[in-house]
Amino acid sequence: MAATAAITWQMRGRHFIINFLVFTLCYPLANLLAAHSNITRNVALPFESALPFVPWMIIPYLSSGIFFAASFAWVRTADDLRVLSQRLLLATVVATLAFAIYPLQFSMARSAIDNPLFAALFGFLSVVDRPYNQLPSLHVAFCFVFWRALQTSFVPTLARILLTAWLALVAMATVFTYQHQFLDVVAGLMLGLATALLVRHGRTQANVALYYLLAAGVTLLVGVLALHSMLAMYLAVSLLLVSLAYARPDRCFLHKRQGRYPFWIWLLYAPYLLGYWLTWCCVRWRERRRPPFIEISERLWIGRRLSAAEAEQLPPRPVVIDLANELSETPALRNGDYHYFPLLDLRLPDAAMTDEIVELLVRRIGEGHTIYLHCAMGYSRCTLIAKHYMEKIAR
């Protein structure tokens, strides 16, 4: 995704909804788990007992929610939106896992609040939040993410100064509203810095590894720590292994041979493989009135992974070039002239692999063979390779 790519309100809304759903699932759940564990430990330092309780700071403290929603509308480019969304998701999942694994409770009691407005706001806070989600302070981590994301959106110098001052006040309010201890704030700032290091601007491909890592984290929190499910543990480990494969990146991590997977791969990656198979079934149903493959040029057909019945519609004895790393090959096609090039979904293949596939296409078509080139769903990988092939023969 280019840094200057156009951004739509649909994109903004999609990223906001994903973040909102993850936060509203994970944050209250971590609070609930700590509440049921009767946690009393804290990380208060001796000097914190002298810190005053400042009721009016509830206003900047609660404004974090406004920033959470408004920041998705304020960022200017699609790359800024992606970075904001991924940093918030990473901070949310990491922090809530820390809350659930090592829960803490705030140690000091608030004094009476005379101002009715501030009393009402603290009453609202006590309904939506409990004193357990402590270290790292997600409020502080979010403030750092907001600050980094909105620096380029607030062009005038005065606006940037006001933005920085207000977000610093929000971070300070976590202490003076008696919501967080000092070490929570430090850990929250470190978490914000970590998200900035791990999620960078200018990325041109989808960060698939990060999304599988986040999915593994949510599964661990909800399925394992909350529901104590061994099946969820298996799913989390499988998702984590996929994340590691994409992070390396390792396009051969599924060890597919002659269109099939060994048994041990099914043991490790069954959720991933079944997820792709179900997606393939949905695509087939959605596009049931459309042809499963199309002719790009003389003797070159491209499309998705075919069912046995669909494979019979191909020209006789085609050379099959399979790019789908995530689906086994149709038995009717893997027993003929079959070639497999593992390409990771949602990632551009390297130039050497692209050239190797294109050279095979040129050679086999030049020999008079008909080629069926396919990926999993027929949307990206086979289309990309076909484009490179057409460019080569046009020279």
UniProtKB/TrEMBL annotation:
Keywords: Membrane, Transmembrane, Transmembrane helix. The keyword Membrane applies. InterPro entries: PAP2/HPO, PAP2/HPO_sf, Prot-tyrosine_phosphatase-like. It comes from the Bacteria. The keyword Methyltransferase does not apply. The chain crosses the membrane at residues 16-34, 54-75, 87-106, 132-150, 157-176, 182-199, 211-243, 263-283. Residues 116-202 form the Phosphatidic acid phosphatase type 2/haloperoxidase domain. This is PAP2 superfamily protein.
